[in-house]
Amino acid sequence: MKIDAWLLDILACPDCRGRLNPEDGQLRCTGECGRLYPVTAEGVPVLLVDEARAPQA
User: Fold this and answer.
1) Measured CA distances, 43 to 7, 32, 40, 57 (Å)
2) Tell me, what's the pLDDT at 39?
3) Are the beta carbons of 54 and 35 closer than 8 angstroms?
4) What DSSP string describes 14-56?
5) Among 1, 49, 5, which Cα is nearest to 29's?
6) How many CB atoms lie within 10 A of CB 31?
7) Contacts 24+ apart (CB under 8 A), 21-26
8) CA–CA separation, 25 vs 36, rounded Å?
9) How far apart are alpha carbons 13 and 51 in whole angstroms?
10) Which residue of 3, 13, 19, 56 has the fewest CB atoms within a 10 Å radius of its CB?
11) pLDDT band at 13 (very low <50, low <70, confident <90, very high)
12) In what order do the strands lie in the sheet with 20-23?
């Protein structure tokens, strides 16, 4: 997965508005919620809270 830096600069977590960082084929929120958002095979981030995984404790 390759997401351009300019796109990462404008994307934000839809739940807590935290910054998103790429990690193992998904985007991890670095804000309060820590949610993991999937990225499709075509490289499109799915930024829906219902599709996100909760962080593991």
Assistant:
1) 12, 25, 5, 27
2) 92
3) yes
4) TTT---EEEETTEEEE-SSS--EEEB-TTS-B---GGGSBPPP
5) 49
6) 15
7) 25/1, 26/1, 26/53
8) 10
9) 12
10) 56
11) very high
12) 20-23, 26-29, 36-38
- Rounded-to-10 torsion of CA 16, 18, 22, 28: -40
Q: Residue 1 — pLDDT band, cuts 50, 70, 90?
A: low
Show the tokens assigned to 36. 């993991």
Token code pair at residue 10: 């404008």
Supply 44's token pair: 């499109």
